[in-house]
Amino acid sequence: MERGRPKSRIGVVTSNKMQKTVVVRVDHRVMHPRYGKYVTRHVKYKAHDELNGCQIGDRVRIVETRPMSKDKRWRVAETLVKAPNV
């Protein structure tokens, strides 16, 4: 059976309070249909983080995967930018 290329998104980790799970916020800009201004919309995804290596503020790339739980259908593929330690 042929499978297509999995979808991927780039976002920022907003929560890592669960075990092996992070919440990633993905922003995208859309043009308002009437006013023509660009508006920022966002979607939150729960992603599997096997090593618990992600911290809040990290910029990560997530890819689509098989369902791992009720809400979790994504996994962290790589960390692009680590958050500064404050």
How would you describe the overall organization of this protein?
This protein is mainly β and 86 residues long. The protein has one domain (8-81): OB fold (Dihydrolipoamide Acetyltransferase, E2P). 0% of the residues lie in helices and 55% in strands. It is built from no helices and 5 strands. The chain has strands at residues 8-18, 21-31, 38-48, 59-64, 74-81. It has a 5-stranded mixed β-barrel with strand order 1-2-3-5-4. A hairpin with a 6-residue loop joins strand 2 (21-31) and strand 3 (38-48). The radius of gyration is 15 Å and the shape is globular. The mean pLDDT is 95.
List the helices and strands and how they pair.
Layout: E1 8-18, E2 21-31, E3 38-48, E4 59-64, E5 74-81
Parallel strand pairs: 3-5
Antiparallel strand pairs: 1-2, 1-4, 2-3, 4-5
